[in-house]
Amino acid sequence: MMDIPEGRLPLHVAIIMDGNGRWAESRGLDRTKGHEQGERALFDVVEGALEAGIRYLSVYAFSTENWARPKEEIDFLMNFNRELIRIRRDDLHERNVRVRRIGRLEPVPADVLEEFAVAEEMTAGNTKMDLLVCFNYGGRSELEDAAAKGPIAEHLYAPDLPDVDLLIRTSGECRLSNFLLWQSAYAELYFTETLWPDFDRLALFEALEDYASRDRRFGGL
Ligand code: FPP
Question: Could you identify which of 16, 36, 111, 184 might form a hypothetical disulfide with 169, taking C-beta atoms 3.0 to 4.6 angstroms apart as the criterion?
Answer without folding.
Answer: 16
